[in-house]
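pinned: reference chain
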Amino acid sequence: MLDEQDDRFYVGPSRIPGAGAGLFSRVALRAGDRLAVIGVTIRADSPADRCTRYADEHKYRVGATLVIPVGFGAMVNHSTSPNLVKVVDGGELYLEAARDIDADEELSFAYDPRALDRFGLSRA
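pinned: its C-alpha cells
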C-alpha cells in the first residue's frame, strides 16, 4: 500500500497563474531537504504509459521509466525559477530544496523539456 505521511507539506490554491492547486511548505526547509516522491513506476512508451495518459501531466521521467506520483509529488507545479530539483538517489525519486524555503512558500520545479513541449509551457 502506498501512503504518505509528511506533515511538512500541504496542498492549497497555487499562486502560479492557471496552475490550480499547488504544494506548499508548512515549515521552513533548508537547502538539501527532500520530499520523497512516492508512486508507481512504469516504462516510458509502454502499454502502461499509454493507458495512464490521464496522469501525463503528473508523471516524472527517470531515464527510461516514468513515476506516476500518488502523493504530494503530484502537486508540485512548474516554474522557470524553481526552488526544488529532481534527484534520483539509490533508485528512489526525491524533490530536493535547491535553496532555503520559507514556511508557506509554494514549491516548484522545472519540468522536463518534453513535458514543457507537450503542455505548451514556456521554457523561459
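why pinned: The chain has two helices and ten strands. The longest strand covers residues 84-89.
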